[in-house]
Each structure stands twice: as structure tokens, then as C-alpha cells.
Amino acid sequence: MKKPNEMTIVEAARALRARDFSVRDLWDACSKAIEEKNPELHAYLEIFEADDVAIVAAQKRIDTEGEKAPLMCGIPLAIKDNILIEGKIASAASKMLANYRATYDATVIKKLKDAGALFLGRTNMDEFAMGSSTEHSAFGTTKNPHDIKRVPGGSSGGSATAVAAHLAIAALGSDTGGSVRQPASFTGLVGLKPTYGGVSRSGLIAMGSSLDQIGPLTKSVADTQILYEAIRGIDPLDSTTIPDGLYGTRELPKQLRIGVPRHLLGAGVNADVLVVFNTMLNKLAEAGHTLVDIELPTSAHALAAYYVIMPAEVSTNLARLDGIRYGLAAHGETLLDDYINSRTEGFGEETRRRILLGTFVLSSGYIDAYYRKADAARAVLRREYTDAFMKADVIAFPTTPSPAFLFGEKSDPLSMYLEDIFTVTANLTGMPAISVPMGLVERDGKKLPVGMHLTAPHQGESALFTLGSAVENV
Amino acid sequence: MATVEEVKKLASLARIKVADAELEKFTKEFDAILAYVETISTVEIPQGEALRRGQTLRNVMRVDGEPHAPAMYTEKIAAQFSARKGDALVVKQIISHE
Prior knowledge:
- The complex is a heterodimer.
- By secondary structure, chain A is of the alpha/beta class.
- Chain A has a domain at 4-231: Amidase signature (AS) domain (Amidase signature (AS) enzymes, Alpha-Beta Complex), CATH 3.90.1300.10.
- Chain A is built from 15 helices and eleven strands.
- The mean pLDDT of chain B is 87.
- Chain B has a two-stranded antiparallel sheet.
- Classes of the chains: A alpha/beta, B mainly alpha.
């Protein structure tokens, strides 16, 4: 039998109900693994003490309700450091919030607590979710368990490593430009960015409010669906959340039409990643699905639009961090000095860079050429995707142009931004997207996972789970 | 395109300081990023209705309900203040009465 911490949610839930082990055993197995491996991998910034009350309650629930208990009951999870758990520090891996204690639970946390899930600790991330490697954390880097010389991706790198190294059964991350899907691709996991508004952002430290979504990082598509169902839903505390059926319902055919934008898959993608991608596509075609060529012309500009809109929203969202009501307070002579000192000391280099970029694109004289243009380009991109979804049920391409890169390899900021080239479109359009492991490529003698990226129309997560499962089982 | 002067001005607007030692490197990186995102200006945008097709407005306002009990969160919030006097947040005086 697998060790309890190596199981999926489905396996662990079954084992708990079959009394193969207890909730306490499952927690202890995860804790032991964390003790052994976290010092090297640094997935967790803080490991929480066992919540005995919650563990006992979860066990009781399974004992009395059995099959009727929620699947998430008793399951230990890793939570990204930008999701608020009341009473715990939520620092977004920044010095600015290093000592900030959450005054309330994020809605997703509340829902998980109600389902009886447990929280092992808060995971490392790029500071304020700004990055694609977790190298921008103010508290050290996280290693990729497949090759410790390589990054796990970002910004949800800590959550990804925690799950990939079996230091948690599953995890929550957040995704603004790919920060759940790209680490999933780099660490061999399944990562979902739900439809914008599908999961509440209440209690998520805001980065780009029109782009952010909390999403699961798990070992299987079935697990992703379970965790997604547990956290989703309309929330009065987040008026951007959406009711079921807002975008209409679609009947999914048994054989799915897979749209592939071949024009985007040229020189920019590593040759062996393309081979793995095409091999998987062919297997899906053999399994009965249809491959369709589609065009998404404005995709070529998606990354530029993203790096205008996101910093603009970041500069606004991070304006609240000024050392006054919460966070690092570095006092000077005047009030203005208080603001400048606190923000300069509290924010890392990448965070400051993006705030300045945002300030620029919103400033008078430039706002029309940059921000308003990017916003319009976003609408064009969304329309292109909607048109493509007339011919296809799902759109597929590789999640990342390459496998996990080496620490320090992308030290030039622009080269790091280009990592997001495939993932940002789903945030810009608000459509749901998933990364599912599609195979391995080799670098320096190590086998590294790479993911297939699937996008569906708004509220079309079921298509992602169906095709995602097909990819898993092929 | 971006100069050290412009970066300094943006920093001042954003209430952030970029250290003199970092300024040149920062400006160069910033400039490269701007050159990249500038390409957005080449996107052709169709005008008016065609752009907003399929996006309808809906009311997301909640019904007025009862507010939460007074002072429910005060202690937790005040505990995060950098400087505190009772339940009040202490800040520098900026308007004097001399």
C-alpha cells in the first residue's frame, strides 16, 4: 500500500472510510514527510501545529457519516501564503507583510473548514505572486523535486513542490497569468485556473483583480475536480463571483473537438516539448477526438497586453500597503517618508518594478496608448476565443515553451515574463484552463515533466475535466 | 525610451525609492520591458458595438441587510496597527494648529 501522504484525495478518502488509517495517521504521515524533506525543498514557509480539535472532528464525521462525509474531510492541504487563514500569518512571501496576521478566513478556507479539510502550512511563492519561478520570494527559493537545481515554477511554486513531493495531499495556489498552471507543468501536477468569478477572491491578497483566481494543484484530474467543487461558488463577499449557468449550458459531445492554434507553436517552443505535445494530440485523436486547426491572431499580443493590464492593477492594489494600518512600518521624518521608507523596504525588486510599470501605463499622456489599448486588445482576444469555440470544444497547446529552468537562468525580467506566453490568455479572457501532465523531456540527464494546456469556454470546466482525464488515461 | 529621470518621477508617484546604485540597471530593464509592451499599440481595435458583443451587464449589488455586531473585528484589526493608542491608529500629525 502507498504511504498515506503519497495518496491522492480519492485514494485517501477511500482509505479513511475503509479504516485503513485514521485522519491523525494521515496528518502524521504528511508531517513526517515535511519534517524530512522541507528543509531541503523549502516548499513551506511555515508549518502549522496540528489542529487537534479539527482532526478529532474530521475523524468523528467520517466515523458517523461515512460515504456522506465530504470527500475533503480529513484531507491535509498546503495553502499558498497569499490566502488568508484567520489568526495565521499571510505574508505573500514579502517583508511588507512578514508579520501580518489574517483577521478573517478567505471564503475558500471557510468552505474547506466546513468540509473538514486540514491545513498543514503556508507555502512559498514569488512575492505578491509576481513571478514564474518562486525565485522572487523574500524568504528564499523553493526547489523542484524532479531536479533540485531547477525551479518549481511560480508564483505558486511552494504549493506545487509540496504536492509533487508528497508533503501534502493537495494544495491551493492562485493564478493571475499562469501561476497555478505553469508550476503544475513544471512539477508534473494537474493545475486548474477556474472561470473568472468561479471561485471567490475574498481573502486572497489581491494582485490583478480582473485576472486573479484561486485554483487547485493536485496529483490527478479527479482530485482537481473534487477540490474545485469544494471551493467554488457565488459569494456575497466577492461581487465578481458568478452564479451557475451564467454563460449558458453546453452539451458536450462524447468525441471532443480539440482546437490547436498551430501558428503559435513555432520557433518559440522547445522542439522536444512540441514532439511530446503532438504525440499526445495523436493519441487523443486515436481515442476518437477530433483535431481542428484554429487561429487566434491576437494571441501574439496577449503577453504585452497582460504586462500592461496586470502591473496597472498591481500598482493600484498595492497602494494600500503603506505601513499605516498593517504591514512593515519604517518611519521617517515626515508622513511622506513613512510611506516611501515602508514601501521601499517592504517590497522586493520585482514588486517595485511592476508597481512602477503600472504607474507608467496609467499616467496621463500614456494611459490611452498603453492601458486603454491593452484593455481593448483584451476584448478582441476574448472575441477570437469565443469565435474559435464555435469550431472547437477545447483549445490545446503546451502550457510552457520549455520544462523547468535552472535557478538564475531567467535573471533578465523580460525573459521571465516570456514564460507566461501561453498561460496569460486564459486570465485575460476569464476562461477556465487546466494543465495536465503530458509527458517527459530530458535536460542534463534528468527527466522533467511538461504539461498540456487546455482552455474551455466560460464555465466549461467539465470539458477540461473530460479531456484532462483522457490525457491522463491515454 | 525610459530615462533615469522618468524612473525617478514614477518612483516618486508610487511612493517608492529606487536606490541610486540600482537606478541605471533598473532603468535599462524597465526600458526593455516598455519596448516589449509597446507592441500593443500595433493591435487593430474594431470600434464600438462589435467589441462588446456578448458581454451584458448584470446587477451584482446585494440586498441591504443587517450590519455585523459593532466592534466585532476591532481588536483583530487594531492588533495589526504599526502604532496604536487604545483602538486608535497613531499617525504623524500633518495639520498643525500653530
